[in-house]
Each structure stands twice: as structure tokens, then as C-alpha cells.
Amino acid sequence: MSVTRFASVLLMFLLVPALLFGAITATYYAEPSLYLQVQPGPYTSDTVIGAKLGYLEVTTDGEEIYSPAWGSTSENFLSAYLHGPMRLIPGGPLGQWPYEFHIMSVAYPEGYPGPPIIITKVDYPYSPIIKNEPEQVKVSPFRVELYLVNTNSVNRNIKVKPPELPASCFEPNESYTLTAFMGARFDLHYSFVVANQKGTKVNEMMNWWDGEPNSSGSYVSVGGNTGSNSIAVTSGLDPGNPEVPYGDPSTMVNFSVFLSEQSTTFDLSEAVGTNRKDVNTMTITVSNGIAGADYSQKVIFTDLTPVSTSAEFRMLPEESGPNPIPFKLYFDSTEVVKGEAITWSSLQNGSSNTKTIRIGGIDQNIIDSLASGTYSDTINVEIRNP
User: What is the pTM of this model?
Assistant: First the structure.
């Protein structure tokens, strides 16, 4: 008789997690693109700069959420660094430096938007979303946001001061490269874990060696994915180009470059001596600029022959044998020095910014000494911020 009663109790215990977690669902909404902004999310001080990564939204059918935690956070073993133009002290000279940023979790256990806002630093190999002590969340939906921030303070009113770098040490309209999440990994993945029953501490339901739940905790399905690494935290970041601009890309001043021709064919006599042959037109379109404001970009011309090999622009014969033909390149009336930047100033908002690319300075004696044929060069154009 006692054996039967014990078996019945055990069966009921095994059924509880299945009934409970079938009623909890979660979806993670990654930011489509990452960019730095001052006073990100709940932070109130203009000394804080960060990028929103995304947010988790958890819904229930009247169930409570016990001791929520981020699991699978072993990637946070190494810090995240942003590398780019910054000042080591406010007002100091601008240089290229790396700086440590932190993944911060922002929870709204009383509903979003609204207090109290709970900020925690995401640590490894797992991290409580609210606190390590037993916690019961009754609100639905329950929202948790993730940010990449220049401070690890859990105080939303923190004022970042040296030796930490405040927001004023970073340069607006510049881009910063994310250089580390466990080395070269940028595909940061977490999981969402809750306790099976109330009264459970986070460290009682998580394995300290791998950041995964033990028998006292369970994974919650996120977007239909259940288990370890079910949340693609940084899916708004291109792993092949992990750039994080300072400023909303939709409102930042952008520069687009267009060339009227992909290739041009002409008679060499048209570019002999003082003759100038128009071979292309460059247009820079300025977007999100201010009407009447002047902008500038640096333009660099090179060709297939490295500057270290030849400082001249040279047309090479399609058939081996004849010597190359040196020539001069002009950007409007300015003679181009291969590999050296030319500043294009007074760019205006819109698409009215045009300059002509010309070829000239070919020596007639060189042409006369060569056999007839076709000569060509590929000119590369690079645009940089000044």
C-alpha cells in the first residue's frame, strides 16, 4: 500500500514541469542593426553610451515565472571590446583605442514600461535576471532587454567618470569594431531558464560548470527553439563586418559614391601633353545632411601597381612585350598623387556634388616608340572620412 502511494506521488511530481512550462512562451526580438547612443534605454545620464541588442518577451497563461535567469552565457567569460576613435580623457586628443563594454540585462518585473527596473550585469556561465534569491514574476508579458554599455553599474542614474570613459570620449558619426566575444566570436547566444518551483535560488537550479539547468530548472522555448543557446542575442550584427556606428544609421549623415562609367575607351592622342581627356564623372550623394551645411570626404586614387613599386599611373599593354605608358590623373583640375588623399570639401546635402576624372600628360615620344595596340589601367577609388 505504501509502495503504491509513493508511485502516485512520484508520477504527479513528474507531470508538474510539463504542465507549468507548456504555459510559458518567449520570443526574442533582436535589433535589426546595432548602433551606439547616449542614455541608452533606462540610463538617465549623458555620460552613459551603449547599444541595444534586443529584448525578450515572456508570456504566461496565468502561471508565475520562478527565478528567471540567462543560461549558456559562457561566451561572456571574455569581455567585449569596441575599438575605434576615442579620447582617453574628456577633451583629450582623439586616437584609435579599444575599450571594454559590458552586457547589461534590464528587466521589468512589474510590467513594461514601468518601475521597478532591475539592471544586472550578464556574467558567466549563467546570470540571474533579477537576483539570485527566489523570485516570482507574475506579470505577463514579462520584458527583459539587453544592452552593450560602457559601464557595468546596475544604477540607472550612474554618472560614468574617469578612469572609465564617459560618452563624451567617443566620436559621433564614427563606427566602432566589436573585437571580442570569446575571442573572435560575434554570434552571441544565450538561453532562458526558470525554476521548476517557487522558493528556488538561481544558483540551485543552474550548473556552475556549464551554465545549463539541473533538475531544479528548465529551459523555456524561445521562438520555438528549446535548449542551450536558443537565443541569438547579436543577430543584428554582421559577423563579417562587426561595425557598431555611433548614431542611428537612419539619421546619420551618409555618403554614397557613384561613377558614371565602369570603363572608358579613348585614343591616346587625346591625352597627350597638356590635353585632358574626360574619362569619368564622380558624384557623392549626401543623405541626412543639413541644408546649407558643408561636408567633406577624402578621395584616394590608386591603380594595379602598388605605390611602393611605382608612383606613376601607368597603362599596361594587353599583350606582353611593349613598355607601359605613364600618364597623369586629374580630379577636376587637381593633379592626383597616387595613394595620397584629396579632400573634397563643400559637399552639400543631396546629389549635386560632382567632379570630373581626367587623364593627360602622356608623352608623345613614348607613344611613337611603341607598337600599336591596346593599353589599359584599372583605377581604384577609395572614400574616407576626413
Answer: 0.66
